[in-house]
Every structure is written in C-alpha cells, then in structure tokens.
Amino acid sequence: MAGKGKNITLQIEGMDCSSCAAVITKTIEKNPSASDVFVDFATGEATFNLNRSSEKDSIKSAIADVGYKVVGENEQGSGHAHLDKTLSGLEKKFIFCAVLTAPLLLHMFLHFPLLHNPWFQLSLALPVLAIGIMHFGRSGLGSLKAGAPNMDVLIFIGSTSAFAYSIAGMFLYAGDPPRQAETLFFETGSTIITLVLLGNVLEHRSVRKTTSAIRELSKLQEVTTLKIETVNGETTYTEIKATEVKAGDLLKINTGDKIPVDGLLVEGNALINESMLTGESLPLEKNKGSQLTGGTLVEDGNFVMKAEKVGNQTVLAQIIEMVKRAQHSKPELQKLGDKISAIFVPVVIGISLLTFFGWYLFSDADFSESLMPAVAVLVISCPCAMGLATPTAVMVGLGRAAKSGILIKGGGTLEKFAGIEKIVFDKTGTLTTGAFSIKSLSVSEPYSESEIESAIYNLELHSSHPIAKSLVRTLKAKNYPAEFSEVKEIKGYGVTGKRKDGVLFEIGSRKWAEGKTNDLKHDVFVFANEKLVATLDIRDELRPGVRETMEKFKNLGIEPILLSGDSEEKCREIAEEVGISRIYFQKTPSEKLEILKELSKNRKIGMVGDGINDAPALAQAEVGISVAGATQVAMQSAEIIVFAERDFTRVFIAKKIAVHTLKTIKQNLFWAFFYNVLAIPVAAAGFLSPMIGALSMAFSDVIVIGNSLRLKTKKLQ
To answer: In this predicted model, what pLDDT tens digit does every residue of 674-686 receive, in sequence order?
Structure first.
C-alpha cells in the first residue's frame, strides 16, 4: 500500500527531458511492489516506496530495458553530479553533430562541387544519424516499451525518414544527377538531430537553474568543523566533515563558520545569521543554553556547542527533503497537460501521415514534396513543453519560498493557497509572539512593588505556564533573592509558596481569584495570607508586521478573521490594533473546528495557527499555515510553514508566491498549447521546412523554462 515499505531513491543517467521521466515513472509503476513513484529529470532522481526489497533489482533491470542506467542509490545530493555528467555528454554530442552538419548546410549557399557530392554528404550525415539513433532511438524505443511514447519517437521518425529517402534517391537516381539532387535531404535529417540536441542542452541548463534553491541549501551541509576531544587531560581539535559528526560530540565554532549540525550552545556566545532558515537578515544573539541550527552562519563570536541532531535528523536536512518531496504533489492544472501529453505522440504521427497522403494524393506534389511537410509536422510538435509547463514553475516557486524562510508542501498547496478567499488567524502564538510583558502592576499597602515582584519571580520560577515563563524572563534582571519554600503549582490555577517570615503567597489566574474578590478584570492576582495585595495586567507582544500583513490581504480582497480561545476583551484589543473587524473569541479547539467548517461551506479558507494546538483547524482549512517557532511540530501540522518569527509579512509573501506561481503555470500551459495548435497546421500546410520546425521545437521548451525562471527575481509586492 502507498506510504508503506522502504523509501528508495535511485540516481538515473540518461534522462533528457520530462518525457524521459514519464517513461521511467511508468516503468517503475508497472511493478506492483512500488508505490508513490516520483521521477525528477532535473536532478536525475527516481524516488518511490518499495514493499518488497527483493523487487529492487528487477526495477533496476526494467529501467535498463527502456534505455536508462541506474548509477547510484540513496546517495544524498549525488543526483546533481550525474546531471553534470549527462549535460557534458549532451554538449559533446551537439558539438560533434554541429561540426558535421555545418558543411551540409553550406551546400545550399555555396557551389563547391565537393559540397554537392552525394557520397561526401553521406559520409558527413552517417555519424550524425548514428548519434540520432543512439540518443533519440534508444529513448523512443524505451518509451514505446513503457507504453508512453515520447517526443523522441517523433524526432527519430522524422530524421530517419529524411535520411532513408535521401539514401534511396541517391542510388535510384545515380544516373540522373539533377533528379538525384532533388531527393537528397541529408542536411535536413542532420539539422533536425543537431537542433534538437541544442534544445536539450539549453533545456538542461535552464532546468538546472530551477533547482538552484535545493542545491544551495544542500551546499550548506558541505562544511567542516573542529571536534573537541580530551585525551589524558590534553584537549585536541580535529577537523572533520559535518557528515562525520555524531550526537554528543563537542565542537569548536568560530566567527565566519557555518554551524555543522543542530545542537546546544554550552560555552560562549555569538551572533548567528539564520537567514537560510527564516529569510531574516538580522542576526540573533545566542548564549549558553541556546538552540543552534545546522547551516546557519556565525557572524561574530566563538563558542563550544554540543551536537544533538545529525545527518538526516537536522532541521536543514528535513527542509531539503521536504522541498524535494513537495515537488511530488501536482497541481490540478497539471493533470490536463498530463492527459494531453499521454495521447500527443500517436495523434501527431496520425496527423503526419494524413499530411503526407493529403499532399501526395490530392495535389501535384511528388513523393519528396509530400514527405517534407509530414516530417515538419513530426519535428515541430513539442509535448515536452506541456510536460515542463507545471513542474518547472513549481520548482522555482517552491525554491523561492524556501529561500524566503517559507516551506510550502507541494505544487497542489501552491494552487490551493493562490485561490483562498478568506484567511483565519489564531491569536496567541500566531498574531502574538506568545511572550508576555507586564502592562500594569497595582500593589496594595503594606507591600511594596519590589516585594510583590520578588514573590512573583520566585514562585513563577516553578511554573511551566507561558505567562509564568514570561514574567520570570521580565523580572530576571532584578536578581531577587530566593526566599520562598514549600512552593506548589496547581495546574490551570496558580502557584503557592511560603516566604521566610511565614507569609503564604498565592499567585493565580482569574479562576483562582473567583470567590475571593469581586474585581476579576485583571489577568494575574497576588494574595498574601488569603488577602488580595496586587493585580497584574499583561500584554501579549504582537509579532512585527502583523498590521501590514492584514492591510495587504484586505487590498487583495481577502478578509482576515480572528479565531481565538482568549477572552473577548483581549481579542477585541488585538483586532482593533491590527485592523481585523470579524472576530470569534473564547472558542475551544472543537468550537474552532466547527467554525472553520461553517466558513468553508461557501468560501476557500486559509488558516494560520501556531502549529501546536491548532492542528484540527489547520487540517480543516483549505490550506493550513503555521508560524510556530516549534519547527518539528509545525512541519507535521501544516501545509505551509513560515519560519520567520520576527517578520509576519512572510505569510503574505507566501500568498504572493503562490499567486505568481499559478499565474506562471497558466502562462506556460497557454504557450505550450498555443504553440502546438498553431505550429502543427502551419507545418502541415507546407509553410515551414523541417529544419525551421526543429529549431522552433528546440526553443519552445526554453521559452517555457525561461518564463518559469522569471519567478526567481519577479517583484511580488
């Protein structure tokens, strides 16, 4: 069943286009033990789940049978190396063919006898034909075996038809040089092969740029570090690769270094640039006890860290893997392109045959004059453009998002998020940081403010509640002495403890204060020997950029909605501050779910939560977005994860990336359909030579990829 079994990644050599990837996909899917198959020709990788490990060799053999070579298995990052080898091979083939094809083209413009000699032309054309048979024939035959005929079938038929007719004419009309010259199309067959190879080279170079974000993230893992070891009381520093670091190792990190793995700062301090993870350029101060993320850059400072998560357990490794897997998810739009691509080649072959017989039977054209439009139909058609339209745009869109500190789980998510009409926000931990500060403190005699603050600090030290932690963080700098004993925490209510002089202090929430005082408008209550002596009002700090984000969503016609479990007063205060007019307050998780269901009846809803206690609501929404700092939880609970805790506008940037990616996909599909709908009739009518057709086909893919690459630098605001 899908999702079970061992995950396998194979590095495959010889994939030249998306049609090749489709052939390998169908080949693997024919094995009943394989599921969740995804083949990416840009990286040269095939990933799938395998229920029976014994079937792995048979899958490799099946891939070889359709003309491709498995060169590695489960080797992280090696796909790009094999892509380099394939690209180099393509370049060599193209240069070799171009050198031999040039004299064949010159005979059309120059009247040197040698250039018009049929045997000379044949000697130049045969090596080009051999490369065409090995390159396109192998791929085309493999696609036919897999039941998914690709573009190379068309190129092979078109180029070999021109060659075969030329060789036949060369011998049939050996005694009639003028007639013989009319049947020689060696330059046509050679030019078709050469130009399509040029298109493959340009396509590979362009597609490789669409995967640059993954490669740049992968390079962050390729670092060395100093491992600290103590032997017989002597400390030594050994330089090792990040891949050699083990959990528990102590590492020495200096200014300018990249942190090799995830871990804990145990000695020293530093300023760390985490832009690769969050997209934020401002460095963060890290001190003893701070968590460190592999791949981030030390801008200033020297420290010792303890490795905790290494290899594929690091946050960076998981992000890379998730970005790769995100490409597996296809938008609905791609399904139309896939359906057309599946029947494209047989249809084009049929149109080519009709073109030939139409010219030959219903016009004055002879065999050669009828053959050329038929060949032009074959070589001008481009199913690859349709195959590349969606995945190239998705790769660039996901890559740009990843570099902006946004992880989007799949092309389908991009499409859904682009279409949302309303967006719901949780409050605590989402619009706000979850860190609280003291808004006001009211103290009754005979106690002083410092006495109350000391009691709050010493008692809240023993509580794990977010408000307690924030109060401790706020008061820590005042260095209040420890003077309390018998401290007890009562979950959901508060903390009690006895001061040295015997006074019993109780610090609690509104629930604790009920029945003890009539003034229940505050957030925290302090009692001394059961008498109310102080009240606190606290403020939940707003994330930077929240108001700006709400304005931007409203400018797009998307209504922001606040949905929170907090009190009406707190919700209205935040809503007024950030510009939200529609609010739901004091809602339990189950009530949040019901509200999301109701809102989703007539509108596509996006939900932004903290990824911890909003999981049901995030799942119910069309798209769930998490802005949690707890990255491990966030990665599992939402379809979009925004890592930039200090820049809430990244939520809106994610929306704009989704919108522009979907727009690019539509543009690409329009061009691919328009090109084929226009080009095939023009070629069939005889207005284009096969050579011009091959040139047009070669560049149609490049146009689609080039349009996708615009997403890398396109202004989103």
So the answer is: 888 899 999 999 9
Asked if 415 and 662 touch (Cβ cutoff 8 Å), the reply is: yes
Q: What's the chain's length in residues?
A: 717
Q: What span, in angstroms and rounded, lies between the C-alpha atoms of 211 and 42?
A: 7
Across 210-225, average pLDDT: 74
What's the CA gap between 626 and 426, in Å, rounded?
Answer: 10
Largest pairwise CA distance in the chain: 125
Centre a 10 Å sphere on the Cβ of residue 512 and count the other Cβ atoms it contains: 19
Exposure string (b/e) for 522-550, b if CB count within 10 Å is 16 or more? bbbbbbbeeebbbbbebbbebbbbbeebb
Say which DSSP state 431 is in: I
Task: Kindly give the pairing relationship between strand 284-286 and strand 262-273.
Answer: antiparallel
Average pLDDT, the chain: 84
The DSSP line for 13-50 is: E---SHHHHHHHHHHHHTSTTEEEEEEETTTTEEEEEE
What pLDDT shows up at residue 1?
40
User: Any idea which residues carry the catalytic annotation?
Assistant: 426
pLDDT, tens digit, 9 for 90 and up, residues 59-96: 999 998 888 888 887 644 444 444 444 446 778 889 99
Site of tokens 């083949």: 39
Tens digits of per-residue pLDDT, 574-583?
Answer: 999 999 999 9
Q: How far is CA 28 from CA 126, 691, 700, in A?
A: 35, 36, 29
Q: Kindly report the pTM of this predicted structure.
A: 0.72
Q: How far is CA 572 from CA 424, 435, 561, 583, in A?
A: 15, 19, 12, 8
If you write DSSP's letter for every residue of 485-546 in order, what string do you get? Answer: EEEEEETTTEEEEEETTSPEEEEE-HHHHBTTBS---SSEEEEETTEEEEEEEEEEEEPTTH
111, exposed or middle or buried, with CB in 10 Å at 0-12, 13-18, 19+?
A: exposed
* Side-chain half-sphere exposure of 632, counting CA atoms within 13 A: 5
Give SS3 for 420: coil
Q: Could you tell me which residues come within 8 angstroms of residue 135 by beta carbon, excluding any fewer than 6 positions away?
A: 16, 93, 152, 193, 197
Tell me the C-alpha to C-alpha distance, in Å, between residue 118 and each of 125, 163, 174, 229, 617.
10, 12, 9, 76, 75
Hey, what's the torsion of the CAs at 505, 510, 511, 512, to 10 degrees? 10
Quick check: 665 and 393 in contact, CB under 8 A? yes
Number of H helices, E strands in the chain: 26, 24
Q: What is the pLDDT of residue 578?
A: 94
For the chain, report the end-to-end CA distance as a whole number of angstroms. 44
Res 220 pLDDT > 50? yes
> How far are the Cα atoms of 95, 251, 292, 293, 319 from residue 307, in angstroms, in the given order?
50, 7, 9, 10, 19
Instruction: Give percent above pLDDT 90 in the chain.
Output: 27
Structure tokens at 200: 């493959």
Band the pLDDT of 2: cuts 50, 70, 90. very low
Work out whether strand 297-309 and strand 250-253 pair parallel, antiparallel, or are unpaired: antiparallel
Torsion over CA: 260, 263, 267, 268 (sign): positive
Q: How far apart are CA 22 and CA 712, in angstroms?
A: 26
- Residue 422 DSSP symbol: E
Residue 149, classed as helix, strand or coil, is coil
| CB 472, CB 457: distance < 8 Å | yes
Separation between Cα atoms, residue 455 and residue 474, nearest integer Å: 13
Amino acid at 694: A
Q: What's the rounded Cα separation, in Å, for the pair 663 and 415?
A: 10
Confidence of residue 664 (pLDDT cuts 50, 70, 90): very high
Provide the pLDDT confidence category of residue 338 given band limits of 50, 70 and 90. Answer: low
* Residue 687 amino acid letter: F
